[in-house]
Amino acid sequence: MDSSNILGTAGLTCALKEAESTDTEFETALNHCLDNLISDESLQQPKDSKVRVMYVGLCAFFLEAAKQALNDADFLLSLQEATGVVDSKRILILATAFKEHFSEIRHRLEELGVSGPALTDSLASLTCRLTSTEVEKLGEAECVVKLKTTLPENDVQFSCSLLQLEDLVWTLRQASKIVEHHAQ
């Protein structure tokens, strides 16, 4: 995640640096953040200005991380890049809270119409070369799959064997059945 795109980096840094905020202030900001991100009740901002700054930083970071669907390692790396804080028990607390509430935060984002990059197109081709009018295989046949997204920098391209391709197709069919079942 690009740390320069995160609003409230100062608040996030303040929340993580134990020299800049107490454990009580950190816990208050985190609790307000999580309550407001996952609750249907009206928003309740902290009254204390320092806690409010930390709250804004935490909310902005959680929302951006959920939007980008960061895994645990990327979440920690982005948190460290954004704040410069590498070793803190608060980093682990945030990582645990994010992991526990990830699906709820993503759900709230989707309710607002915000989501990560979406798949727009897919292409598949066989690795081979033409010699006169015949197709000559290059070693074992491989399929090159290209998945285009709404963000070109997030496009995916990979090659796979027939067995891997069949496994992928099976997995996608299973996922399709699950989505279909939940849509009913």
Automatic annotation (TrEMBL):
InterPro entries: COMMD3. GO terms for biological process: sodium ion transport. It comes from the Eukaryota. This is COMM domain-containing protein 3. It comes from Varroa destructor.
